[in-house]
Amino acid sequence: MSETGNRLRKLLESPNFDPQNYVKQLSQQSDGDRDLQEHRQKIQTLADETAQNLKKNVYKNYRQFIETAKEISFLESEMYQLSHILTEQKSIMESITQALLSTDKDETSKEMQAAFPKETEDLKQRTLTSLLEKVEGAKNIMDTPGRHLVYNGDLVEFDVDNMSPIQKAHAFLMNDCLLIATWLPNRRGTVKYKYNALYDLESFAVVNVKDNPPMKDMFKILMFPDSRIFQVENSKVKKEWLEILDETKKKKASQDKHKKEEEVPTSPVRAEVSNNPFDVDDDEPADAEECVDLSLEWIQELPEDLDVCIAQRDFEGAVDLLDKLNEYLKDQPATQTVKELKAKVDERVRQLTEVLVFELSPDRSLRGGPKATRRAVSQLIRLGQSTKACELFLKNRAAAVQTAIRQLRIEGATLLYIHKLCNIFFTSLLETAKEFETDFAGNTGCYSAFVVWSRSAMTMFVDAFSKQVFDSKESLSTAAECVKVAKEHCQQLTEIGLDQTFTLQSLLVKDVKAALLSYKDIIIEATKHRNSEEMWRRMNLMTPEALTKLKDEMRSCGISFQQYTGDDCWVNLSYTIVAFTKQMMSFLEEGLKLYFPELHMVLLESLREIILVAVQHVDYSLRCEQDPEKKAFVLQNATFLHDTVLPVVERRFEEGVGKPAKQLRDLRKSTRPVRINPESTTSLV
Predict the structure, then answer these.
(1) Which of 260, 418, 534, 673 has its Cβ near the most Cβ atoms within 10 Å?
(2) Mean pLDDT for the chain?
(3) HSE-up (13 A, CA, CB side) for residue 90
């Protein structure tokens, strides 16, 4: 930029710049119109340079913005993972604290019961009685001696079929049964609830319902043949319900077992004591206790070591410790101390399984691809949870594929979008298949699950494919190219022995059929419209270039066209017949690209209907035309249609599908030009 331009720029950028004074001074200093024009040109040049620099800066900053956005996205993902880790560690610490508190509470409760058994029992009875006074129709529940309240809380019952809320309820868990009461809309005094159902603890099972927002914090009660679903306030309350229900059911089962053992009469034969000093009881439990040595340091510290491994996410170390324990206890008798140890270890196994399941949940980051799940999958398989590992792995990959398809931007040409869609989907499917084969090599029973999953994934792909290709009413040529691309990508799966071509065809056949029939109707309407304006005149292409182009188009379709052209730009055929031939051959080629065995008759009948429109028009013209010259020209067009076009259509169809086109052959034979008499018309039969 010149020195004058720099001075002008500084002047305009000055904060004290006044446009009116500047123009006024400039007018006074200028000698005439020429000076003002030159100054105007300088300002315009400066404005153009400023706009160009601004545009460059915008592009430069735009690239920086994209890079910054990517870094922010990566950082967000890492923070998301870190948040999950912290949440997980917090939940582990809370569970440990809760376990310690519950242990202290149980010990205090036991001490109170041992010191004041009667007072404790009376307190429980009074608590239950005061609560049941609020339930209408529940007076006789307290008739059972020894019955007391364990836990209670508000619930919301949901319909099992459509997961819609039914009613508010309140549950009373007692030491031998579960009472469900519903809320009264019109309360009467202290009565708040109405008796609904009473279940013995042995008559039902409790199942955790997996959270699926907005349906969360639910559990299911199974009573053959019915079931009921309840929702609680939050996940903490849900956990308390599940744990207390399970613990109460176990206590009830243990008490019933002890009662039965006490009621069994002692056999007098067993009460006899042998006087033979050489008789040895092989099933003496004391000897069995001495057979298992659990005083080893690593066994004593095993539960704590498992807790540390789970907290530090050392899943491999935790499973190694479990394998070591199982190997040590493999041939050992199941003594009471062994059972107690296994009970402690089983609780850690449950926690470890929950953590591994969370690692495979779709809520986790999906950026790592299929290999990112290998660690959790392999440890679940080692824990004997291969079926669960297979299910979670496939759900994880389904979520990843769905996310990738959803994030794909729909921009530009449809064919370009389909190329990107096929590349993303089939590459993900191939990687998932290879990773599945690696992870579940020793579990052949899981392969059927992968085949079912691949079909559901293909359904997801076809939904996105059809929405973009067929629902948007793209041309038949574009649809044919898109289907061809999908078929080619589908062939990649044969590398691993998975052929999804039939699945792809069966899912696309409905949309492809509709597209063929729709385009057939368009061609028929266009042909009828041209037939209505037919003048039976030779076609004049005006320029040699246009004639050459038409010859090339006919040659590419496989039609011999040379005998119908001369040295000039005239073509000895009607415009209607030439346009019909081009449209007909284009439909045939696109139809062959879209061809499935299920669409054989659809394509064949469509071709037959299109040909009949042209044949009937020529037949009608031959019968009605009175001018001998025009009759001869119509006959020439009929001969071209019958002897040149129809054989090419028949041959190309048979080459494309590998089957004879009997309907087209019969149509050609039935429309052979027949001379009625030498001097008059020639008609098509």
Answers:
(1) 418
(2) 78
(3) 6
